[in-house]
Amino acid sequence: MMNRSFIVAVVLALVAAVWATVAYLHGANIPVLEPQGPVASGELSVMYITLLLCAIIVVPVFVLLFWFAWKYRASNPETAKHHRPEWDHSSAWLEFSWWLAPTAIIAVLAVVAWQSAHALDPYVPLKGSNAPMTIQVVALDWKWLFIYPEEGIATVNYLEIPVNSPVHFELTADAPMNSFWIPALGGQIMVMPGMTTQLNLLASNAGVFNGVSGNISGAGFAGMTFAVHAVSESDFESWINGVKASSTPLTNAVYASLVAPSTYNAVAIYAPIDASLYTAITMKYMSAADMAATLAPTSASSNDMNGMNMPMGDAPMQ
Amino acid sequence: MNWTEFIFGKLSWSVFPQSPIAMGGGIFMVLVGFAIIFLITYYKKWGYLWKHWFTSLDPKKIGVMYIAVSVVMLVRGSADAFLMRAQQATSVGASQGILSASHFQQIFSAHGSIMIFFVAMGLMFGLINLVVPLQIGSRDVAFPFLNSVSFWLFVAGAALINLSLIVGDFSTAGWLSYPPLSELAFSPTSGVDYWIWSLQIGGLGSLLSGINFLVTIVKNRASGMTFMRMPMFSWTVLGAMSLVVFAFPILTATLALLALDRTLGMHFFTAGGGGNMMMYVNLIWAWGHPEVYILILPAFGIFSEVVPVFSGKKLAGYTSMVLSVIAIVFLSFTVWLHHFFTMGAGGDVNAFFGIMTAVIAIPTGVKIFNWLFTMYRGRIRFTSPMLWFMGFVVLFTLGGVAGVLLAEPAADFQLHNSLFLVAHFHTMIVSGVLFGYFAGFTFWFPKIFGFTLDERWGKRAFWAWLVGFILAFGPLYILGFMGATRRLDHYAANLGWQPLFIVAGIGAAIIGLGLICQVIQMYVSIKNRHKNRDTTGDPWGGRSLEWSTSSPPPAYNFAVLPVVHGRDAFWTAKQSGTVAAHRYEDIVMPRNSAIGIFIAGFVFLIGFGIVWHIWWLAILGLIGEFVSMLLRMFDDDTEEIISAEHIRVHEAAHHSRHATI
To answer: How far is CA B316 from CA B290, B366, B375, in A?
Structure first.
């Protein structure tokens, strides 16, 4: 059927392809597989556990597929002897085991899913050896505005954080929906106008990591990238002081120019800032009725259609 | 009153494409259209096509037309895919690639919408039309005229989405058009309106077809064919059509709400004004997840027919197969939130939907075991449908593992919106749905056309698809781990992504070779049709009723309606030598009707009118559609009689051929 040299060529091509892939990936930067903080590393462990559990089913499936295909091929003279055209299942137990095996694996996976979905819920605060901090994130067309409310500064397309310091992100958009993702530090969260979501991350190691938007937000979407600099606490403090000393204030006029669509924005630094800016941005999209509902907590729940917390609510969504 | 605005709405000269590549696409489509019209006119086939095909209510002919339109749309959707691969392979660092950001975004939005709505759905309804009535021993579908309306609505939707190449632009908001990006404030052109109305019209056709085939399977089965004797393909179609009936109204309502936002300034999903964009995302996936199973269930059904026939055995674990179909139908409505774990709904909600998603893997796993044990102790002939099956099991299982990874909320946070996700769902849709439909098309082709497809080119196509698929989507899995998000028209050079994007581009080119092999296969098969003629009606050693008729079957399918005594009705009949007694009677069949074409044509005008705010045209379309429906309602002469004598002559010819084999 197939001659020997053809098979040799196919095997050689496969070996070459695997070798080229391994050689290429050896030098490549693969942030999801090289976590730089506890969240990303926890999420990676979930992937490994899941893969191992799936392998218990997948490996036998592949073995049976190729074994049966080879053994019972029509061109095999032995096949006629084994042929049982009416064989359907030898016993109820065998058929039952087809249900049982995947069910058992999924039962274990369900436990993993339940525990990890809670432990790694983006709203759960983290613990670190350094003091926690808050950063407010605003997705704009097509750039990221980062507000450091405690330090009184803001940046565009640039994040600097101290290592081992739990960072609590509060996120909203003054633009279409985006998704905030720093693969080296951990998973993403959606960023929406008129709503606040939260994300907790921590960098265990110093370094420069890439941040992106995962959700299409318009023409300049591909340019919504930013660098995350994780530095020592003292370096962080001197950076903050430098920003405060040298920068331009984030006035209403400056903010208005940031809201206007622009692509591939350069890094910018602002200080001082208006402390109420973030709240003002989230309130911008609320109708009068929503605002009344938000201010009167007793009626807020009826307005809360699918579990989204409305702007003023900082509590994790239930 | 401004008369120009009244007559033309938002249309003006500026809506015609301005950039050379966009214009190229439009000009190409126009030329292809003219070429087809010229050829039909040149060979004087208009009358023939109108009389015997366009106005036909015969599901077999409607099925062929569905597949023909879907293949044209597959070419369009693939051209989009090749452009995307070319852009991402070249647009790195200082180079901006071949497309502008907006054009690139239109292309991926069109690619997804076309491949799901006008390729996968079209191929599915095509195969269902060809096979289901024959397989359940019925002469027709429950509502033959409705079937024609469904098909022509599908054509109207496809025409509208293609028209956006020439008049105006298409949506840039992705194939599911999440608001607020898809709202007027951020997408002011008519692109999203084209998206809404082509899907709305095509989706309406799908909903009507869903009702039609659900009723057909429930009411038109042959005498003696209980549900537990029904062939697996019909079972999976029953499952898929139940999903259509429950899921598509959600799509219709969601699109209508978005259209109200855009057209009448309402605020269902807008940013501000009390709109809630996550409501849209929930609704669209409450349709969107069942939609995945609508597409995959019939593919499972096809493999459940192909594997027993080419293994020379009955299907292992029939009852398990039925139970797993039913389980999938119910579970598919309980998992939609896994498409947006990153919304931040909290651990309880995410864990629930994650676990439900993993639970669907159980019935799917059971199906794979059933197919494997159908091969056990069989005599397996490796025809091209069987090769598609082998490729399906390998790729689909791996894609399924990727799916279980994504079903873990904690893992999904790192994989969502990345190219890993893109690679996962392409594995499910291409190696699952498309490989399945290719297998089914090859398998049932001789039944419909009377000759088998060329196996040599079929196998070449398979290998090109398999190798091309691995090269095109393997790199995307890796790119996801590297932090590459989907839909990027450009990326920085220092990320090191370009080599993988180039490999993916090579893979896409090899898939293109696979498509070319399939075109050659069709050409060679038609050329050699006399050599490959199926004179028996049963070229593979089939097991279900469709193989008991002549190939192609007569318009009435069965001269004498079959009586079924067990599963694998035709196989059992062949074994016991009891093939059909013959006392022929006149058969009443539906007469051809052109009204389905008129209804769909007027609906197209409604869609086009609303897209461009040409209100008089939309109202004209509405009136025309209503009048067409009235005409049909008051037409009492919708049936014709095929005489017993005519049937006797056809059947005698078939049985004499049968005897000589």
So the answer is: 27, 11, 9
ipTM metric: 0.93
Which domains can be identified in chain B, with CATH numbers? 7-294 (1.20.210.10)
B270-306 exposure pattern, b = at least 16 Cβ within 10 A, e = fewer = bbbbbbbbbbbbbbbbbbbbbbbbbbbbbbbbbbbbb
The per-residue pLDDT for range A139-162, each reduced to its tens digit, is 999 999 999 999 999 999 999 999
Closest by Cβ to B485, choosing from A184, A189, A214: A214
pLDDT digits over B50-66, tens only?
Answer: 999 999 999 999 999 99
Contact B417 A179 (CB under 8 A): yes
Within chain A, all domains assigned CATH 2.60.40.420 are found at: 133-288
Q: Are strands A143-148 and A178-182 parallel, antiparallel or unpaired?
A: unpaired
Overall CATH class of domain A28-79+90-119: mainly alpha
In this structure, are residues A221 and A140 in contact, taking their beta carbons and an 8 Å threshold? Answer: no
Dihedral angle, C-alpha A17, A19, A20, A26, nearest 10 °: 140
CA dihedral B408, B410, B414, B416 (to 10 degrees): 50
CB within 8 Å: A88 and B372: no
Between chain A and chain B, the number of residue pairs with CB atoms below 8 A apart is 312
Q: How far is residue B266's CA from residue B282's CA, in Å, rounded to a whole number?
A: 19
Q: Quote the CA–CA distance of B491 and B89 in Å, as a whole number.
A: 10
B181–A316 CB contact, under 8 Å = no
One of 3.40.50.970, 3.30.450.20, 3.90.180.10, 2.60.40.420 is the CATH number of A133-288, namely 2.60.40.420
User: Torsion angle, CA of B318/B323/B328/B334, rounded to 10 degrees?
Assistant: -170
Chain B residues with CB-CB distance to A117 below 8 A: 347, 350-351, 354, 408-410
Q: Calculate how close chain A gets to B579, using CA atoms only, in Å.
A: 20
Task: Give A272's Cβ-side CA count (13 Å radius).
Answer: 5
**DSSP assigned state of A287:** -
Contact yes or no for B401/A102 (Cβ under 8 A): no
d(CA B98, CA B90): 8
pTM of this prediction? 0.94
**Amino acid at site B252:** T
Residue ranges of chain A that CATH labels 1.10.287: 28-79+90-119
A177 pLDDT exceeds 60?
yes
Residue window 70-89, chain A: list those with CB within 8 Å of chain B.
Answer: 72-74, 79-80, 82-89
Residue A140 and residue A258 in contact, taking contact as beta carbons nearer than 8 Å = yes
Q: Any CB–CB contact under 8 A between A47 and chain B?
A: yes
User: Could you give the CA distance from residue B387 to residue A272 in angstroms, rounded to a whole number?
Assistant: 67
Q: How far is CA B643 from CA B57, B361, B524, B598, B647, in A?
A: 19, 52, 37, 30, 7
CB B321 within 8 A of CB B235: yes
Q: Which two tokens stand for residue A287?
A: 């109708």
Cα–chain center distance at A268: 25
A44 part of contact set with chain B, CB < 8 Å: yes
Cβ contact, residue pair B354, A305, below 8 Å: no
A146-155, B9-18, B622-631: which range is least confident on average? B9-18
- Cα–Cα dist B261/A129, whole Å: 50
Distance between CA A208 and CA A221 in Å, rounded?
22
H helix intervals, B450-487: 455-481
What is the dihedral angle through the alpha carbons of B232, B234, B239, B242, rounded to the nearest 10 degrees? Answer: -170
